[in-house]
Each structure stands twice: as C-alpha cells, then as structure tokens.
C-alpha cells in the first residue's frame, strides 16, 4: 500500500492483444547488456491497484516514482519552471528506457555520485534546454529487486523527436553513462 | 531477485511458537504515531529466499539494505574504521526501530535533507563516539510500499545498553526527528 506521495507503475510488454490504451512499439534496442524480448505493445499501469504482472505480457517492469535523489533546491526551481506535464494530447511519441547502473556506481558515496551526475556530467543543467518540449518521469526499481535500477519515461510530440535523440545522445556521451551496465531503449507511439 | 550488493530482509513478529532463532521481545513501545501489535518474538530473515510474510507472524516488515543515501566519502572512511560487524557473540541485546518520515521530509530536495540530517542534526558525527560498541544496519522500506520508510537494526552487549539509550535519546532530540511521524521501538534479547 503506497502513500499518496509515491506513485507505483508497471510497464507491461506484450502482443497486439494487450489491454486497450497500450502504446505501439516502434523499435526496441539493447543499448548495453542483455536485451528485453521484442514486443508489439507496451501498456503503462500507473497508480494503486496496478498488477505485479500481466498474463498477456512478455515482460513486466515495475518501479516507483517518489522523491528526487540528486536534485538540489535551486535546480528544482529551474526544473519546475519549464517541466511540462505528462499526457499532453500532442505528445504522441514516448520512450521507455530501463537502465541499470554498475556495482561500482552503487559503491560510490552520495557526494561522489552527485559529482559524477551533475558537476561532471551536467545531467540536470544540460537537460534544461530540452524542456518543455520533452516531458519525463523517473521510476525507481532498485529496491524492488527488479532487473533494472530505473525506468525512465519520456513523452514528446513527433516534431521534437530530433531534440529527444540529441538529449539521449548527450547523456550517453557523459561520464555518468560509464556506470550504466544495462540499457534498453524502447520507442513508442500512440 | 536481488543483486549481490543488495540485502533484503523480513522481520516477523509473532508468538512463542515462531521459528527457532527468534529474538525474545523485552518491550515494544510506540514512540510516535500508531503502535505495532505486541508480540513475544521477532524472527529476522536476512538474504534471498526470505518470505514476504510468515503465517506465524502477527506482522512482517520488509526492507532492503543497499547503498548509503547521505554518507559522504570522508564519513564512510571514519565509519568503516570503527563499525563492528553484526552477530558478535557478546551482542545479546538488539533493537528494531521502524521509522517513517513525514511528507514534508520527502518534499525536501537532496541538499536540504542532507543539511538537516548531518550539518544541523549531526546524525553521523555524533553517532561515531558510540562505535564500536553498537553495531547497526539500515534497511530501506519506502519504495516497497511498506508502512515504514526505514527499519533500523542495532546489536549491543548488555553492558552497553546505557550507551544505546543515550544514542537514541540524542538522535530523537535533534531537528531531523521533527520529520519522524511514526516510530516504534522494539527491544530484544537472545
């Protein structure tokens, strides 16, 4: 039973017979490490009452959105000023990018992880110019015993697909990504 | 399925018929917020294959020990130099203290939570003098949808019970504890 400030979600990958409202898979690519089985649809269950697994699914990935782990107050103010909501009618493209970080990342202390994340990789600062075109939500999976540590979810309009590619390429080029040991990139449309 | 650097645990409270190896409850006290049902024994399941619940239990609390969320490298070095292991033969007293923090704590950003935790409440610095007498491990429960955010576990020898009371009183007197909205203190012996 999750408290109101926590938002659990389950992403279920399956066939065309998956529940109504599922996103259509445009491509699914293993960027690093083991792939996920190819599926035709992804259904996103957000909030209480979400199933842990779904019979129709080839896979189900669970996560919980909650408090920020690295963002500082000054950054929060900047982000809030330009972050768009999810579910905009024009945002008919989405990306689900599950990520796992290496044991060496998790062995770092908080100050060391923060330094890699922002002072050296500029994860927040260099993402800001891409807002408000791209909406995002981060789900945490690590403490759930899931195969990934994070499920990152993005939504954007078709005309901003190029900007999204640029953002993803930028993040992947930075020191932080040296600690990513599994990543799957799933592009969706509805 | 948890990766090797993560350690899941389940604490099961129940009657005298609980599994062999259970700790005997000396007292159980609601410090703030709702109590937990009074039990006679607490069994600690650590590691893979732990049950999510136990038939014999009046309650079961789950958590996962993993990476530190606030500790910086310099503090880690100091802590490692004096932190004793769990399961010392002489440590026949233990405390299980489940804690929940308020929505206002979780609405703070990382820099704000760190400032309350250490710069203003000196959680790490003022705990150091109590080591190596008191062994501890912190389990995180929040992302699991559990009723508490943390399960704190302590072990000490009977002659250090006074020192442990002093440590607990010190932490409860600080600003950090203004954000604790539920706390139960369970004292155990074996």
Explain the overall architecture.
- The structure is a homodimer of 190-residue chains.
- The mean pLDDT of chain A is 94.
- In chain A, strands 4-1-3-2-8-5-7-6 form an eight-stranded antiparallel β-sheet.
- The two termini of chain A are 31 Å apart.
- Chain A contains four helices and eight strands.
- In chain A, β2 (23-32) and β3 (41-46) form a beta hairpin.
- With 190 residues, the first copy, chain A, is of the alpha+beta class.
- The radius of gyration of chain A is 16 Å and the shape is globular.
- Chain A has helices spanning 73-82, 103-106, 110-120, 161-172, and strands at 7-14, 23-32, 41-46, 57-65, 93-101, 135-140, 150-156, 180-189.
- The longest helix of chain A has 12 residues, at 161-172.
- Chain A has a domain at 26-33 and 69-189: 2-Layer Sandwich (Alpha-Beta Plaits).
- The interface between A and B is medium-sized, with 33 and 33 residues.
CATH class of one domain in chain A: Alpha Beta
List low-confidence stretches of chain A. Answer: none
Biggest chain contact: A-B, 33 and 33 residues
Helix content of chain A: 10-25%
Number of strands of chain A: 8
Name its key features:
homodimer; 190 residues; alpha+beta; Alpha-Beta Plaits; 8-stranded antiparallel sheet; 4 helices; 19% helix; globular
Brief digest:
The first copy, chain A, has 190 residues and is of the alpha+beta class.
Topology, element by element:
Two copies of one chain form a homodimer.
Chain A: E1 7-14, E2 23-32, E3 41-46, E4 57-65, H1 73-82, E5 93-101, H2 103-106, H3 110-120, E6 135-140, E7 150-156, H4 161-172, E8 180-189
Antiparallel strand pairs in A: 1-3, 1-4, 2-3, 2-8, 5-7, 5-8, 6-7
């Amino acid at each position: 039973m999750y408290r109101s400030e926590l938002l659990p979600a389950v992403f279920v990958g399956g066939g065309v017979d998956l529940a109504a409202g599922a996103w259509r898979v445009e491509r699914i690519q293993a960027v690093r490490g083991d792939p996920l089985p190819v599926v035709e649809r992804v259904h996103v269950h957000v909030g209480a009452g979400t199933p842990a697994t779904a019979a129709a699914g080839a896979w189900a990935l669970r996560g919980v959105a909650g408090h920020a782990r690295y963002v500082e107050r000054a950054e929060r103010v900047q982000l809030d000023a330009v972050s768009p909501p999810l579910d905009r009618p024009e945002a008919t493209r989405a990306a689900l990018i599950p990520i796992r970080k290496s044991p060496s990342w998790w062995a770092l202390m908080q100050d060391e992880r923060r330094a890699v994340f922002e002072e050296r990789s500029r994860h927040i600062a260099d993402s800001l110019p891409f807002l408000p075109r791209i909406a995002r939500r981060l789900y945490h999976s690590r403490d759930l015993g899931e195969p990934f540590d994070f499920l990152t979810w993005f939504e954007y309009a078709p005309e901003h697909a190029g900007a999204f590619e640029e953002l993803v390429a930028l993040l992947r080029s930075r020191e932080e990504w040296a600690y990513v040991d599994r990543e799957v990139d799933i592009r969706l449309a509805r």
